[in-house]
């Protein structure tokens, strides 16, 4: 069966798998979630009415599958262990971010222009970012990804993972610091 719909799903597969791997930190489970999302999309393909892109629709299905998994599998965080893992992430926050968590002037990343050489550099940068995300504690990376990449509201994240807003903000703060340091070492110093 080689329909245009199947071809489009095949093109989205690597992107969906990377998304699931960052969220779940388990390659096998990520593969299962992507397969479930693809199966659901295939079974509901008549419902896709192109009001959004296929990629947006598929990610929505995948996000729901992952959210269902987390609802069924409680995420228990030992705050003492989390504190130990993240203590060093607080060191540079005040230097780079203001009180609202936004970049301070002079530290904000520059906008990129999409000429071919820069496009390739962007791709390499995002690979480095994914590697840095993989080095974060699992829960911290998941919260950061949902907030900063997927655009979830803080309240949604807190509800999903049974976190207080303060804990969520601390995790985001630590993730930003750790990612900045990791990218400084593994990307900016090399390019």
UniProtKB/TrEMBL annotation:
Enumerate the Gene3D superfamilies for this protein: 1.10.1740.10, Winged helix-like DNA-binding domain superfamily/Winged helix DNA-binding domain
GO BP, one annotated term: DNA-templated transcription initiation
Domain RNA polymerase sigma factor 70 region 4 type: residue ranges = 127-179
Q: Which Pfam families match?
A: Sigma70_r2, Sigma70_r4_2
Q: Does the keyword Transcription apply?
A: yes
Domain named RNA polymerase sigma-70 region: residues? 11-72
GO molecular function: any one? Answer: DNA binding
Recorded hits in CDD domains, A to Z, give: Sigma70_r4
User: What's in the keyword line of the UniProt record?
Assistant: DNA-binding, Sigma factor, Transcription, Transcription regulation
InterPro entries xrefs: RNA_pol_sigma-24-rel, RNA_pol_sigma-70-like, RNA_pol_sigma-70_dom, RNA_pol_sigma70_r2, RNA_pol_sigma70_r4_t2, RNA_pol_sigma_r2, RNA_pol_sigma_r3/r4-like, WH-like_DNA-bd_sf
**PANTHER family in the record:** RNA POLYMERASE ECF-TYPE SIGMA FACTO (PTHR43133), RNA POLYMERASE SIGMA FACTOR HI_1459-RELATED (PTHR43133:SF8)
Q: Which family does it belong to?
A: Belongs to the sigma-70 factor family. ECF subfamily.
Protein name, as recorded: Sigma-70 family RNA polymerase sigma factor
Q: Which organism is it from?
A: Pelistega europaea
């Amino acid at each position: 069966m080689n329909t245009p719909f199947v071809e489009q799903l095949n093109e989205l597969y690597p992107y969906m798998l990377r998304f699931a791997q960052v969220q779940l930190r388990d390659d096998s489970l990520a593969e299962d979630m992507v397969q479930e999302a693809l199966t659901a999309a295939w079974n509901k393909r008549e419902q896709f009415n192109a009001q959004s892109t296929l990629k947006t629709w598929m990610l929505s299905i995948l996000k729901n599958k992952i959210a269902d998994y987390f609802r069924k599998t409680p995420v228990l965080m030992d705050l003492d262990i989390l504190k130990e893992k993240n203590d060093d992430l607080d060191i540079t926050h005040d230097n780079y971010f203001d009180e609202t968590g936004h970049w301070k002037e002079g530290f904000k990343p520059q906008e990129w222009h999409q000429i071919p050489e820069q496009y390739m550099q962007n791709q390499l940068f995002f690979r480095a970012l994914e590697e840095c995300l993989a080095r974060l504690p699992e829960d911290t990376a998941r919260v950061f990804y949902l907030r900063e990449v997927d655009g979830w509201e803080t309240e949604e994240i807190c509800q999903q993972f049974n976190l207080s807003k303060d804990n969520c903000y601390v995790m985001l703060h630590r993730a930003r610091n750790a990612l900045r340091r990791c990218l400084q070492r593994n990307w900016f110093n090399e390019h």
